[in-house]
Write a structure and sequence with these properties.
CATH topology of the largest domain: Rossmann fold
Strand order of the largest sheet: 7-6-8-9-10-12-13
Number of strands: 13
Shape: elongated
Number of helices: 14
Order of helices and strands: HHEHEHEHEEHEHEHEHHEHEHEEHHE
Strand content: 15-25%
Structural class: alpha/beta
Largest sheet: 7 strands, mixed
Distance between the termini: 64 Å
Radius of gyration: 29 Å
Helix content: 40-55%
Length: 363
Amino acid sequence: MTLAGAIAFAGDRAPVGSCQTNEVRQSSPQTPVQAVHRRACIALLGGAALAWPRTVRAQQSAKPVIGFLDPRSAEAMVDRLRGFRQGLREMGYVEEENVAMAYRWADNHLDRVPELASDLVRRNVTVIVASGGPSVAFAAKAATTTIPILFLSAEDPVRMGLVASLARPGANLTGINFLNRELASKQLELLRQFVPKAVRVAVLVDPANAEITEATLRDVKQAAAAIGLQVQFFHASTSYEIDGAFATFARERPDALFVGADPFLNSRRVQLSLLAMHHALPAIYSNREFAEVGGLLTYGSDIADAYRQIGAYVGRILKGAKPVDLPVVQSTRLELVINHQTARILGLAVPASLLATADEVIE
């Protein structure tokens, strides 16, 4: 019952003077019957006033809630979230209009991810987006066997044991598999085209993300041996360790730098790009976000498009689809981005073949 309805109801039922309390004269004592009616009226009005906001809150909470779990910070995810929201809109969902978001950011503390995943489960969200690598997907998987989980992974989710198969993932998980961890050979070839005399390449990885680091070590070692490059691996899990790695580069002077595809390293892209320029160190990265902030060269999956795809998959879940019926999508859209201004600062000539094939050249 609305508040207006309660007032009308009380006015119809109550004796004259019992609800119109302002009209009761102090000099005229109420009869017992009038007092009873007055108390009943006040109780009715009070109950209606309390029920009304509860009804509004219930209507507001009727929106499906998307849990978004990521080991980074909101500031590091602006472009990717833009792609995610675009995918939602393509399926008819707009944040805060007909769907709610529950963001959980670990601020580069991977040890917090399991508890953040459990928090989303306790909130009983409609679906969980596990963004930021295999460790996030496994944390979400450990937290619930019933809430749908959509992951983004650069690793083979079948080989890792995350899903049974790409076509029939099984259980409550499916998602997007993009190819950044399988491109080491092409990335090293591009780096050598930029720096033909390169022999010694430093490789920066984040040991806190064990699955990603293991895959990077394996792929880079194999690719480097095939084209005669010597590689040395350096670890960095904090911004201070990144500074320490570049201090080592300043002493040992590698010919070029390969930055592994990793959520933490991505979140430090400004620091990495500026340090590489400061030390005149040609570097290659896995996604265009580095080139946009001054990185020399990037080659990898179109990450913004991968997030658009996961947004569309979330929309399908909200419309009633089951993860078991949605195959894991392999995102094959790759892009080469060159920052021409950075190349000039480093005194490097961009090969004409790369200029002709680049998806974008930033001037």
